[in-house]
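User: Hey, quick favor. My workstation is busy. Could you predict this chain's structure for me?
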Amino acid sequence: MNIKQRLIVMNFLEFFVWGSWLISLGGYMFTFPGDLCERGGLVGATYGTMGIASLFMPALIGIIADRFMNAEKVLGICHLMGAAALYWASTIKNVNLIYAAMLLNSCFFMPTIALNNTVSYSILTQYSLDVQKIFPPIRVWGTVGFIVAMWGVDLFSWTKSPNQFLLAAVAGVAMGIYSLSMPACKPARATKGSSFVEMFGLDAFVLFKQPKMAIFFLFAMLLGAALQITNAFGQPFLNDFTTAYKGTFAVDHPSLLISLSQVSETLFILAIPFFLKRFGIKKVMLISMLAWVLRFGLFGIGNPAHGLIFLVLSMIVYGMAFDFFNISGSLFVEKEADKKVRASAQGLFMLMTNGLGAIMGGWAAGKVVDHYTTNIAGACSGVKDWPSIWFSFAAYALMLAIIFPIVFRYKHETKGMQQVRH
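Assistant: No problem, here it is.
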């Protein structure tokens, strides 16, 4: 295989691991016995483990990859450790222990998202290839891997089964071994003579001295909160239609319906180079925020029967909502950060989005879901007012879309397709 094909396989496996459980975990947790009126909070907190891990692990792993060990080796070791945690999750019978297992898994898996980008960027650079042009089509195959994993879990009826974790564990082992075979991505900086700030990767925080970067990272955190909402509650939302819409496609195959989001993602990834060069990061981020408004709002008015079209449209706009923020943001950080701190800067981006953002999003979303879960005469019915839930989230995204263009100062010059820094 040539180097592009090898990177395609790596990105495919990276997101196959995640797709095996990320969307179906929330629905699976609602199948355990116990108080369903507090289950939303537990589900939100469990998805928030990705945020807790992202507060320190991506930055820490980024430091190791920057200074002490080849990045591809660190990537492989993290996946092997994460696979062990996923196997443990498959054996758990108590819903409360799922939190501990997913926290452990998150500590090893979450750094691999940024590290996968770092390894890809490093190898493409070694081969003198244009990162912004070549990487998005490669990254598309990561989304394909995510989709294939979702379809497998759905078609084998594992969405409410611990087998989803076994599938992820096997894929994690395969990814770990494969990563170790990738071309060497040597540490960029030697440790001898380094200052304390440099040694611990704190020099990446120098980016906050730039007003545009400080604001960018703040809104990256706020958009990271939006991302966790449908990850955690998209499938429980569709599962709650089971009684009224039994036999419909959305009820029988919720993961297949949700996978349309990832299909859309593959298409919008390919559009990123054009949109970034034509409109710049400011407008691309604003488009993402408006897409989140539609994502949530369409969920609020959709249902598996006459409202199916709204659910499908929600899946379609997800590609724009996710890619125009996550992938474009990563490329923006790669462009703005000095090469000496790029791995740490990617870790910082992860800290803000899948770290602080995920914690805030998981906690707040869980509280909103529990708030709109009906109590009758002091007893929990488990019935949720989903339209109110989704419209609350849509209002949040709309607020971000109104504020962002006012405070983020970054001029885009279309001539020569160059962005002017201030």
